[in-house]
Amino acid sequence: MNKIISHELSKFGKVDIALHKESAIFYDLLEEKGIINYLKNLDHLGFISKSHPGNNHKRWDYVMLQLYILHKLKDEVFRTGLSSGHRIDGRHEVSGLVILQIAVFFSNIGHLKGTLSSEVGFLDFLERNNYAKSDFLSNISDSQDWMDFTNNIINNKDYYKIKYIIALNFFKEPQHKPSH
Questions:
Q1: How far is the C-alpha of 85 from the C-alpha of 97, rounded, in Å?
Q2: Of residues 178 and 126, which shows the higher confidence score?
Q3: N or C: which end of the chain has fewer CB within 10 A?
């Protein structure tokens, strides 16, 4: 299953990006849950975007730019390894391109409105409210590896990675867990 997504990028024009297999499925899930539309309306730089007209881009512009760069790297004459297969969980073989497309989506879906300033506030809220923190992390806590990852971000106040915990929480919600 492949999917072509198109977007108009300033200074690039219209770009068409091919999503393949798992990245197309992930995109469809994000679209169904309203996340793609959310990214299309989210200011890329949060409140900073209001300070200068040249900073006024949406998060979706940034996502599409990242996907466009991957697309160009894959199609160029030098070997990037993006077509080579990688085993996931010992079962699925997925191309490097698909892995990176999913990583682009995943690394952007966890941003809150206001981006970093809101995410810093969210981490501070979790640190002051143990019940809210426990509730928020309840979907992640079923995996020790993910809890170690999460605790490392929280304990080190790694504000730039809070978006990953938010994205992981979305992905690990019971209605999003893949069925076996």
A1: 9
A2: 126
A3: C
Tokens representing residue 117 in the block: 């300033």
pTM (predicted TM-score): 0.77
Cα distances from 94 to residues 61, 91, 170, in angstroms, run 26, 10, 23
Report yes or no: 139 and 172 within 8 Å, Cβ to Cβ.
Answer: yes
- Give dist(CA 42, CA 84) in Å, integer: 34
At position 63, the amino acid (one-letter code) is V
What are the tens digits of pLDDT across the range 87-101?
Answer: 566 667 777 788 888
| pLDDT value, residue 178 | 45
Instruction: State the Cα–Cα distance between residues 103 and 40, nearest whole angstrom.
Output: 18
d(CA 9, CA 132): 39
Report the C-alpha gap between 67 and 56 in whole angstroms: 20
